[in-house]
Design brief:
This protein has 202 residues and is an alpha/beta fold. It has one domain: 3-Layer(aba) Sandwich (Rossmann fold). Helices cover 37% and strands 26% of the residues. The chain is built from five helices and seven strands; from the N terminus they run H-E-E-E-H-E-H-H-E-E-E-H. The protein has helices at residues 2-19, 55-73, 80-87, 99-108, 181-199; strands at 25-30, 43-45, 49-50, 77-79, 113-124, 138-150, 155-168. A hairpin with a 4-residue loop joins strand 6 and strand 7 (155-168). The longest helix has 19 residues, at 55-73. The chain is globular and about 55 Å long.
Length: 202
């Protein structure tokens, strides 16, 4: 009976917590087919192009993406910073990768695919925590773009854009937890990865 009461208390606390959270909304668009086939080829993940402010946040974003993408795709996925010196690659490779960079990868490495990621904070009106209701309407919005090149042909084989948003107004008196654009950047990239996992062939 004591254990059952503890479960009920925990459940009530969780319900209270969730009722105080502003839930993000996501929209995921594709310019290519959604499916990625991980059964063949070697994948190279580029450094994320992002407008996050601190080195620590950017480093965490990259580690998070690389770890989760590897869990989706398996053993033939590599992060560019881990192999850059081995292949004498440029210090930076932009999100919109120029043909000469793709050609360099083709001639000097054995990778088949280049994974480029870009995140942007679109609107940043909200904080993560609220002690009182906001005075007026506010919105946080962030987006993640993932583009994958086939190195052999230089063509884009995968293009995904995920936008996440949270809104609050003066009527949201019970909301205590929202998301800043920076926090939304992390959850939007995780949403993008969940979509990739859902449609992956392994």
């Amino acid at each position: 009976m004591k254990f059952k009461n503890q479960i009920l208390i925990i459940g009530s606390l969780l319900n209270l917590l969730f009722s105080q959270c502003a839930a993000p909304h996501y929209n995921c668009d594709y310019q290519t087919p959604k499916v990625l086939d991980f059964r063949k080829g070697k994948w190279l993940i580029n450094v994320i192009e992002t407008d996050l402010n601190t080195y620590k946040a950017r480093e965490l974003l990259n580690k998070n993406f690389v770890s989760k993408f590897k869990k989706i795709g398996g053993n033939y996925i590599y992060f560019i910073d881990d192999i850059r010196m081995k292949y004498s690659l440029p210090n930076e490779m932009p999100f919109s990768t120029p043909p000469e960079n793709i050609e360099l990868l083709k001639l000097t490495t054995e990778f088949n695919y280049l994974v480029n990621i870009k995140t942007s904070k679109i609107k940043n009106d909200l904080h993560d925590i609220y002690l009182t209701a906001p005075l007026s309407y506010g919105k946080s919005e962030a987006e993640t773009e993932i583009v994958i090149y086939e190195i052999k042909t230089g063509e884009i084989i995968f293009s995904q854009r995920t936008v996440g948003s949270v809104t609050l107004n003066e009527n949201d008196r019970n909301i205590r937890f929202a998301k800043s654009a920076e926090g939304l950047t992390f959850s939007t990239i995780n949403k993008a990865l969940r979509e990739i996992k859902k449609n992956a062939i392994k």
